[in-house]
Amino acid sequence: MGTDTQHSKHQINANNLELTYDSLPLWEGGSLALGYKFLNADPSADQVDEPGSGEHDYSDGHAFMVELNQAVAGTGFNKTVLQYYVDGSAAQGVLMGAADTLNGNVKSGSGYAIRNYGSIPLGDRWDLSHAINYAAADSIETWDNDQLDATMFGASAKLAYHWSEITRTYAEVGYFADEKTENGADYDRSGSKYTVAQAWSLGRNQPELRLYASYFDSDNDNWSDSSHAFEGDDSDDTWVVGVQANVWW
Length: 249
Description:
Elements: E1 11-12, E2 14-27, E3 30-41, H1 45-48, E4 49-50, E5 54-55, E6 61-72, E7 76-87, E8 102-103, E9 106-121, E10 126-142, E11 147-162, E12 167-182, E13 185-201, E14 208-219, E15 237-246
Antiparallel strand pairs: 1-8, 2-3, 3-6, 4-5, 6-7, 7-9, 9-10, 10-11, 11-12, 12-13, 13-14, 14-15
């Protein structure tokens, strides 16, 4: 979507009403969840009279969800999620936004998302996890009088090898492709990433410390701002090396 549409200044507070029916059994290892979320726009006084845009209303949002859960090979799982968005929530699928977030710049429109992700054990030492996302937004009209249609696709896969209960190695690949039509003009961009990581923890499924190296590349040449993605808009690819820790309590 356009840079202005996803700018943080357009994220507004909302009063949420959420209805969920979870864990409806279907068959052995399979269950269904259904959900609906209504977001009542609650902008601040500054957002109601936004400098540069003038005073305007804000659209409420609606999000509908169906989720199919399936246990796989004992400790594995697979989830397929269908989401449908209306009005103020219409762009959330293509922006990878949370269903409880309201984009105040979207006046009307609709969108949907199809997501599949999971993890499969491949024996005692190997695990394979994946995520696949496709989303579209149709007939989006913004309060800035822009007309937008957009699609996004993303996929990733991560292979893990457990050397022991406390150390493991990861190899991960990912790819994305976005397209949009903004006021009659077509744009696209795409990119990929490759990561290797070594991790240590106090046991499987416990908080871990990771040492990683990642390579990213992205083609923004046909996106609306014609900028490069990395290194101060000077490069279409880059390397990142770092340390990451995840903890919970």
